[in-house]
Amino acid sequence: MPTACAQYIPANAGVTVKFSPRFHNAPLILEKKLYDGKDSFSINTLRFYVSGIELYKNNKGVWKEANSYHLIDMEEPESMEIFLTVPANMHYDHILFNLGIDSATNAAGAGSGDLEATKGMYWAWQSGYVNFKLEGVHSACNTRKHEFEFHLGGFRGSDYCMQQVLLPAKEAGTITIATDVAAFTNKIDFKAQNTVMTPGKEAVMLSKKAVAMFSTKSL
Amino acid sequence: MKKRVIIACCVLAVVVCSFTIQQTIPFVAPPEWPKPEYHFEANPLTAEKIALGRKLFFDPVLSKDNTISCSSCHLPQTAFTHIDHSLSHGIQNRIGTRNSPALMNLAWSKEFMWDGAIHHLDVQSLAPITNHDEMDETMENVVQKLKAIPQYNTLYAAAFVDSAITGQHTLQALSQFMLTLVSKDSKYDKVMRKEAGASFNEYESKGYELFKANCASCHREPLFTNNAFENNGLPIDTTLNDIGRAKITHNEKDIGRFKTPTLRNIEVTYPYMHDGRFRSLQMVLFHYTEGIRGNTKVSPQLQKGITLREDDKRNLIAFLKTLTDEQFLHNPQNQFQP
Fold first, then answer.
1. Which of chain A's ends, N or C, has fewer CB atoms near its CB within 10 Å?
2. Whole-model pTM?
């Protein structure tokens, strides 16, 4: 008789959500030289929060992950897979998640686990979580070492830039969510816009553009 | 019948125990004060967490080169501020951009820092810990350093069920110590509570009337702040270009607005204002009577100006000195304990 309150998950239950970073049709490799027209660039950091994961069927929510906060970090392969304890025979046709951390969680102060301030995704000088970090080098950037840094966050009033992402999802053991960074970088003029590290209109606008990265269409 | 007696005894024991436990938690919310803003239910005070927070507060291990602790800029005997410094200095003589606020009655604040950049006490410590001119550390590194110190392992194990040394636990412990810093026993408080032998003298009484007429709209009793962002007409210091609240809200109207600081213990927290530009209370009053003349951008409460004769100013300062709380300033619970 098990003494710990371990959750019993039958063999055919549970769904793994796998984030698959890509650049166009190829897997994304950090620090690898890429091309944006004539400009050369590379992605050096990709980290973002995924929270509030839910499954939908016929436009109705049918399952919600408890305590749903995950830090996806390209440098930590294990972080890119999230095991959802979905009961067996759960029917769904869409998956919903937040790109970032919701306002209430921001307001609640110091979080634990993936929400720890030690993860480097929390602004100390003007409190709040950084929802999304993309850093790299792009020859069009007129910055020190041609670096670009997008740290998108903000949760007060009109600075709120967390985005909801709703994607079709086939019932399966694994839902693979392609995360095509090119779909985001294509929308950016790196000469004009390369350093966004505070809450505000730019962060909100870029967050909306970032949603385009995610897709569940077969690769 | 026997069962009932046993149950009654258990209930009595629990009641007695809870009173005893309350005695060891040095936090008292005066019943006549507003309700605290801090969500205690998310971080309930315990003696162990407070002790841990106290040790962390006085420990320079939080800084990059292990020289600066919280108490370096927030000294207990001077109401947890850095007196005699207009701007504080952190590690390696780096000078910051603002005057160190006095720490007291933090449970009653919703927003922290002169511009309200921090919305929760639990995350406030991150700001000085990671600021280049203050402690210049990372939270991750702080946790690594603490994990290597046996005494901290013992303290975290005593304080937290999972014994873990994490960023969150460190921040929560610091909050708990800071929450216990309650100043409520000044002469003013004793007069208000009508305690035996407590009364204002003639100058303090007059000063109190002047205070209520001229200052209390922003420096509202009993906290002596309205916890709002006000423009008190300070000309911008072009060596700092500190726009105050506007930095956070991006709203032009907030340029020059700063959080009203408490006046409790004001006698010992000089110099004054967000950049420490006034070394004495006389200079502060001079600003309020002469400095804001004709300034249309000041908060509504200051629009009609303030008139004070010289003896009014002396009386007002006499009253302000009644806000000094010797019990708070010298309470051993608020100080480093080896």
1. N
2. 0.89
